[in-house]
């Protein structure tokens, strides 16, 4: 086995970074993941903040594009309110990344052999 390869038995769970996951949806466009920090015994860990993640998909000519992005919120109500702006920001970032990759690809010089 190559020294750079890792065996599955070498994988370690970060027991200090565990979360309980809840999913909420409107069955139309929005899904929310609420990640509540927990201790190794399964009890809530109030020393860390709850995380919210927005999930949706946009249709493109190539098919659906999944969008996942964090939402800075402390409650589900606040996450719902901030959903459109968070998704809009994530889409804008994806477009900018795609444009940057396109520019990088276009700037490559190909030297014929």
Care to give the gist of this entry?
This protein is an alpha+beta fold and 113 residues long. It is 28% helix and 31% strand.
Tell me the overall shape.
Answer: flat
Secondary-structure content class: alpha+beta
Mean pLDDT: 91
Low-confidence residue ranges: none
DSSP strand content: 25-35%
State the helix count: 1
- What is the succession of H and E elements? EEEEH
Strand tally? 4
Largest sheet: 4 strands, antiparallel
Quickly count the domains.
Answer: 1
**In what order do the strands lie side by side in the largest sheet?**
1-2-3-4
> Roughly what percent helix?
25-40%
In whole angstroms, how far apart are the ends?
Answer: 37 Å
Radius of gyration: 20 Å
Task: Explain what this protein looks like in three dimensions.
With 113 residues, this protein is α+β, with helices and mostly antiparallel strands. The protein has one domain (13-107). Helix content is 28%, strand content 31%. It contains one helix and four strands; from the N terminus they run E-E-E-E-H. The protein has one helix at 76-107; strands spanning 18-25, 31-38, 51-60, 63-71. A four-stranded antiparallel sheet has the order 1-2-3-4. A hairpin with a 5-residue loop joins strand 1 and strand 2 (31-38). The longest helix is centred in the last third of the chain and has 32 residues, at 76-107. The mean pLDDT is 91.
List keywords for this structure.
alpha+beta; 4-stranded antiparallel beta sheet; flat
Secondary structure elements and their pairing?
Layout: E1 18-25, E2 31-38, E3 51-60, E4 63-71, H1 76-107
Antiparallel strand pairs: 1-2, 2-3, 3-4
């Amino acid at each position: 086995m190559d020294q750079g390869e890792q065996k599955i038995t070498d994988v370690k769970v970060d027991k200090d970074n565990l979360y309980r996951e809840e999913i909420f949806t409107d069955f139309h466009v929005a899904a929310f993941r609420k990640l509540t920090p927990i201790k190794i015994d399964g009890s809530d860990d109030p020393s860390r903040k709850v995380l919210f993640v927005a999930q949706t998909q946009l249709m493109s000519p190539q098919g659906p594009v999944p969008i996942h992005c964090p939402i800075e919120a402390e409650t589900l109500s606040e996450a719902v309110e901030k959903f459109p702006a968070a998704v809009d920001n994530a889409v804008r970032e994806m477009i900018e990344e795609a444009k940057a990759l396109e520019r990088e690809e276009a700037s490559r010089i190909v030297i014929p052999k």
